């Protein structure tokens, strides 16, 4: 085979590889819904459905964020949990505002800050805005609802970026105390903690939350195919442990980590790592 024919052959292979990479990049940018069912530990009379949304980073998901809204509406959750980085410290707040306004009137919504909102000069404005549209902001506080006959306490803490450990743990304590004291019946509340950080499991194990929901890890950025392993996550480093799905902590608490929805904010494509909304059914 002469050199020209060899060169053409290699050009063909390179073109095929490039087309495959482009196709994979486009495919793994499509959002999906992950469904997880867990036990309520005897505290839940009828199933309670929660939609977990994290790490939107004010990303664009169609006109009026219709892709995400349709996914949530299809799941028809009893509440929506916004576990941080819904807004971004660099990108416009417009898409995040549109998304929040679309869900605020439909579902009970609960929000905690992520590190990018803490980095933003608009942290307090974001909280005020969310409260003004009817979304509950949790920052060392708790809100208790009766859902399908069960008492559910939604607790939440700010992202600890600029906090000492003692300050952050004080928020955890105050939110748990508020949850325990809020129930007006003899029924113990099922306690859900919203926190952005999945890597702080040792701290969570010192408390008695039934379910902890987190984001932040972005699914490990690139995921290793056919595994739940990622390549890298903030504050966990290489081959992080907590990036996707359900984990049982040492004290018996369930922790669910969403891969999140970040697209524009990520420096490279989400290979093997669809952006996601997680629908949690507590039985």
Terminal CA distance reads 66 Å
The number of E-state strands comes to 14
Give the full name of the CATH homologous superfamily: Metallo-dependent phosphatases
Please state the structural category.
alpha/beta
Kindly provide the name of the CATH class: Alpha Beta
Q: Count structural domains.
A: 1
Largest sheet: 6 strands, mixed
Provide the low-confidence segments as ranges.
none
Strand content: 15-25%
The secondary-structure element order is HEEHEHEHHEEEHEHEEEEEE
Specify Rg, calculated over alpha carbons: 20 Å
What's the shape? globular
CATH topology: Purple Acid Phosphatase, chain A, domain 2
Mean pLDDT: 92
* Order of neighbouring strands in the sheet with most strands: 1-14-2-3-4-5
If you had to describe this structure to a student in words, what would you say it looks like?
This protein is α/β, with parallel strands linked by helices. It has a single domain, classed as Purple Acid Phosphatase, chain A, domain 2. 29% of the residues lie in helices and 23% in strands. It is built from seven helices and 14 strands. The longest helix has 25 residues. It is globular, with a radius of gyration of 20 Å. The N and C termini lie far apart (66 Å). The mean pLDDT is 92.
Secondary structure topology:
Blueprint lengths: L2 H25 L4 E7 L9 E6 L12 H10 L3 E5 L10 H11 L4 E4 L2 H5 L3 H10 L3 E2 L3 E7 L2 E7 L8 H18 L7 E5 L6 H4 L6 E4 L17 E2 L3 E2 L6 E4 L5 E4 L18 E7 L1
Parallel strand pairs: 1-14, 2-3, 3-4, 4-5, 7-8, 8-9, 9-13
Antiparallel strand pairs: 2-14, 6-7, 10-11, 12-13
């Amino acid at each position: 085979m002469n050199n020209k024919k060899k060169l053409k052959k290699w050009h063909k292979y390179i073109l095929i590889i490039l087309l495959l990479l482009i196709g994979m990049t486009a495919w793994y940018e499509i959002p999906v819904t992950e469904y997880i069912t867990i036990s309520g530990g005897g505290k839940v009379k009828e199933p309670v459905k929660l939609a977990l949304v994290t790490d939107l980073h004010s990303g664009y998901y169609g006109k009026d964020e219709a892709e995400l809204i349709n996914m949530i509406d299809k799941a028809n959750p009893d509440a929506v949990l916004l576990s941080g980085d819904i807004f971004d410290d660099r990108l416009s707040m417009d898409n995040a505002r549109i998304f929040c306004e679309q869900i605020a009137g439909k579902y009970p919504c609960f929000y905690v800050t992520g590190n990018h909102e803490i980095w933003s000069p608009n942290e307090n404005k974001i909280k005020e805005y969310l409260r003004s549209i009817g979304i509950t902001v949790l920052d060392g506080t708790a809100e208790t609802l009766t859902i399908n006959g069960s008492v559910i306490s939604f607790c939440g803490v700010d992202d600890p970026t600029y906090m000492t450990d003692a300050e952050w743990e004080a928020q955890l304590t105050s939110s748990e105390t508020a949850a325990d004291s809020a129930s007006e019946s003899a029924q113990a509340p099922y306690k859900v903690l919203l926190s952005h950080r999945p890597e702080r499991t040792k701290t969570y194990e010192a408390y008695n939350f039934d379910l902890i929901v987190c984001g932040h890890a972005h699914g490990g950025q690139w995921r290793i195919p056919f595994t739940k392993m990622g390549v890298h996550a903030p504050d966990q480093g290489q081959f992080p442990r907590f990036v996707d799905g359900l984990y049982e902590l040492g004290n018996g608490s369930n922790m669910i980590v969403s891969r999140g929805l970040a697209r524009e904010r990520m420096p490279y494509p989400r290979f093997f790592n669809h952006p996601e909304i997680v629908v949690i059914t507590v039985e």
